[in-house]
Amino acid sequence: MVHSLHNRTLWLIGATSGIGLPLAHYLAARGVNLLLSARKNERLEKLCASCREVGATAQSLSFDLLEQRACRRAVELALRYSGGIDIVIILAGLSQRATALETLPEVRRQIFMVNLEAPISITEQLLPYLRQRPESQLVIVGSLASYISTPWRSAYCAAKHAVRSYFETLSLELRGRPYVTVVTPGFIHTNISRHALKGDGKPYGQMDRNQLRGIPAQRCARKIAQVLIHRRPELFVGLQFKGWLILLIRALIPALYRRLIATQ
After folding, report:
1. Bridge partners of 59?
2. Closest CA to 12 of 56, 54, 55
3. Angle 76-135-14 (CA atoms, 0-180°, nearest 5)?
4. 189, 214 contact by CB (below 8 A)
5. Most buried among 19, 73, 92, 194, using CB within 10 Å?
6. Residue 134: its pLDDT value, please?
7. Which of 41, 24, 43 lies closest to 33 in space, CA to CA?
8. Are 30 and 6 in contact (CB under 8 A)?
9. Which residue has the higher pLDDT, 183 or 134?
10. What whole-number distance in Å separates Cα of residue 41 and Cα of residue 259?
């Protein structure tokens, strides 16, 4: 079944960087009413302005996923948004570049909060409302790290494994009200590795080779938008040959998989 996006209202969390920025522009050009969220209000206002230039309705709602009270307040404000929310996409993510032993507990908690706790908390607050909306949708963006574990990403991989399991279970329980999609990006050209946290909480500040060679964020954004039209429970995007091969080896030859991943 094809679902129209025109005049639907969508709350995009994590809108000003990575996949979120081109996704906001793509949706704006297709008549979607946008409520855009990120941490930095100045960037949000610029994004809203650019979306309005193509005729879209766009409003900003800035908040920090690391602050539980701010998350709760953001949901309250979002639910007052004119016309009601039909679709929610949670894109925000925070990666890691440090061993488990090097990572301070407070840094691990930040990674868990952004990738797992905040998305679940926001979802739980929204569900009673979304279940009353016709054809409502919930899209959570995970990672290839939801399936494989790699060195220097213990907290990130743990959070992404957990978030995939949670939202897959939620999908089975809700049975389409709202319709839940888990997006699994592989190698996408974004700054996620630059913004990843080292063990002391400082930004890693470097582009990983996998991100440099990844598919453009614009292409990934278009794939996500298509999931809103042609609903699917899970979308794999940007895994390329390498990602699919890793998953295949993991399933068929676990010992080889562990040797290969340990060298990455």
Report:
1. 35
2. 56
3. 45
4. yes
5. 19
6. 87
7. 24
8. yes
9. 183
10. 44
Nearest of 42, 45, 9, 3 to residue 27 by alpha carbon: 9
Q: Cβ distance 53 to 27 under 8 Å?
A: no
Hey, which residues does 29 pair with through a beta bridge? none
Q: For residue 240, with 0-12 CB atoms within 10 Å meaning exposed, 13-18 middle and 19 or more buried, which class applies?
A: middle
Cα gap 95→199, rounded to integer Å: 11
**Paired tokens of 238:** 């940007």
Radius of gyration in angstroms for the set of CA atoms belonging to the chain, rounded to a whole number: 18
CA 117 – CA 167 distance, rounded (Å): 12
Q: How many CB atoms lie within 10 A of CB 81?
A: 14
**Over the stretch 191-239, which tens digit does the pLDDT of each residue have?**
999 999 999 999 999 999 989 999 999 999 999 999 999 999 999 999 9
Could you give the strand order of the β-sheet that contains 58-60, starting from the edge strand earlier in sequence? 58-60, 33-37, 9-13, 87-90, 137-141, 179-185, 234-237
Please give the Cα distance from 168 to 160 (Å, whole number).
Answer: 12
pLDDT digits (tens, 9 = 90+) for 105-145: 999 999 999 999 999 999 999 999 999 998 999 999 999 99
Residue 46, SS3 per DSSP: helix
Q: Which two tokens stand for residue 227?
A: 């999931």
d(CA 90, CA 11) in angstroms, rounded, equals 8
Q: What is the pTM of this model?
A: 0.95
